[in-house]
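WARN  no MSA supplied for this record, continuing single-sequence
INFO  ligand: PBG
INFO  echoing inputs
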Amino acid sequence: MTRTHPKPDIDAITGGRRFRRLRRAEWSRRMVRETHLTTSDLIWPVFVIDGVNRKEPIASMPGVFRLSLDLAVAEVERAAALGIPAVAVFPNVDMALRDATGSAILRDDNLINRATRAIKAAVPHIGVITDVALDPFTSHGHDGILKDGIILNDETVDVIAHAAILQAAAGADVIAPSDMMDGRIGAIRQALDGAGMNDVPILSYATKFASAFYGPYREAVGTDKTLKGDKKTYYIDPANTDEAVREAAQDVAEGADMLMVKPGLPYLDIIQRLKGEFQMPVFAYQVSGEYAMVRAAAERGWIDGGRIMMETLLAFKRAGCDGILTYFALEAAEELKRQNG
Ligand code: PBG
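INFO  complex generated
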C-alpha cells in the first residue's frame, strides 16, 4: 500500500498534551483516581421470612436468599464485621396474612418489626433501614389501599405514618418510605415527632420510577403472584427528569433527611441532578433487575461479573452518590477487603 496521507504529527495535533502519561503505571493511576468506593458506601438489602433455619433461593436473583430471622441475623453479623454500615429489611409475608388494606403493617409483631428487633438485639451497632410500604402486606401487591381500581392517596399515607411509628419503636434507625404517595414525608415526620421520635431520620425514596427493573424483587417478596396491574399512577414516568427534581424538592421541603433514586444505573442522570440541586445525602438503589442482569450474563461467561459489579458501584459514586443499596454489598465488601489487603 502506498501512503496517501502524511505521517500525523501528534504533538502538533495535541499541543503536546498527552493524557496517557498518567495512565502508564498502577501507582500513578491510583494517585490521580478521582472517585473511590469504600465499604461505608454499601447498604445491604436483606429478605426475611418466618420460620427457623430457612434459606430459600430466589430463582431470578442467584446468590440472594430469603432468610429466616436466625439466619438473617447471622448474615447481618457478617455484614457488620465487613464494615457495612447499614442493612435494609424486606419481608416476604405469609400469604395468609395479606389482605386488601395490608392491615398486618399495623401489627407491632409483624415480620418486618420482628426482624428489626432481632437484628438490633444481636448487632446493635449496624443501622437498620425499614421500607415503610404496603406492598408485601396487601393481597393485590400495591403500595397503597386499593378501592374501585384506584390507589387511595390520603388513606394510604395515614396508614404508613402509623406504621412508621411502629417500625421506629421496633428499633428501625431510618424510615424509608417507598410508596410515592403525595404528602407522605411530611405526614411521617409529623407522626414520628408526635411520638417523641424526633431523632429518627427519613430516607425518602424520592424519585422512584415506574420501572420494569423491579421484577426479581417481586419474586423475592411474593408480589409477583399478587400484583394486579401496574404502578404507573403513583411511581414517576421513566421519561421525566424535571418532575423527578420537583418531587425531590417537595420531599426536602416536607422534611426528608436523605434522598434515594431508584432504579440506579439507568438513572445516573437523576442522581447527578439531585446531588447538584440539593447538596443532600443521595443514595441509589441498584435494584433487583440490575443485579439479575449482571448475574445472568456472568453465569453465561459473557461478562466478568466481579469486575462489572465493582464498575457499576463506582459509577454511582462518580455520579455523586453517598451510598448504594445493593444486593452485591457483601460480595463487594469482600472484594474491597481483598484489594485493600
Ligand atoms: C415497593 C418496592 C419495590 C422495591 C422495593 N420496594 C418496587 C416494587 O415492587 O414495585 C424494588 C426493589 C428491587 O427491585 O430491588 N415498595
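The first helix runs from residue 10 to 14.
INFO  checksum written, moving to next record
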